[in-house]
Design goal:
InterPro entries: Homeodomain-like_sf (IPR009057). With 151 residues, the protein is an all-alpha fold. Helix content is 63%, strand content 0%. Helix 1 packs across helix 3.
């Protein structure tokens, strides 16, 4: 699932794409979901689906579809600027806490591709996605062959 657009996620299309990649028999999918082919087709056409179905798709297709939304949050919903308020909110929640800045290989490739193709400059990436400058330059150094850059 390379070159995924993390801004506009059409989950049905991505599920259908993964199903095709794995060549899963539609009968097996219908059995797994206890439904008919029409309902499965509706899910393929849906821009979003409920989390219970998404969890089942993730298990069936052995792919973490939730990660697409996590990557969207990392890129398009950076933490608020007021760190004291952010810490206060974090301490009062009884929900599990996760590290937000876990960058996947797909996300790194997405960012580096933006730079390589000239769609964004390094400074634009740092400002638009709030990726730390040191992190971006580590990625560039590590993946310089894929960027076509030399020392």
């Amino acid at each position: 699932m390379m070159n995924t657009n993390f801004k506009e996620i059409h989950i049905g299309e991505l599920i259908k794409k993964r199903t095709s990649e794995l060549k899963i028999d539609p009968f097996r999918i219908c059995q797994f979901f206890h439904t008919d082919e029409k309902e499965i087709e509706r899910m393929y056409l849906a821009e979003s689906i409920d989390t219970e179905h998404l969890l089942r798709w993730s298990k069936l297709l052995e792919y973490d579809f939730f990660r697409l939304y996590s990557q969207h949050l990392i890129l398009y919903a950076p933490p608020s600027g007021n760190k004291e308020e952010h810490v206060k909110k974090k301490q009062t929640s009884n929900l599990p806490q996760f590290r937000k800045s876990i960058y996947t290989v797909e996300l790194i490739n997405f960012i580096l591709e933006l730079i390589k193709t000239g769609q964004k400059t390094k400074l634009e990436v740092i400002e638009d996605y709030r990726i730390p400058k040191t992190t971006l330059y580590k990625w560039i150094s590590k993946y310089k062959d894929s960027l076509g850059e030399s020392d």
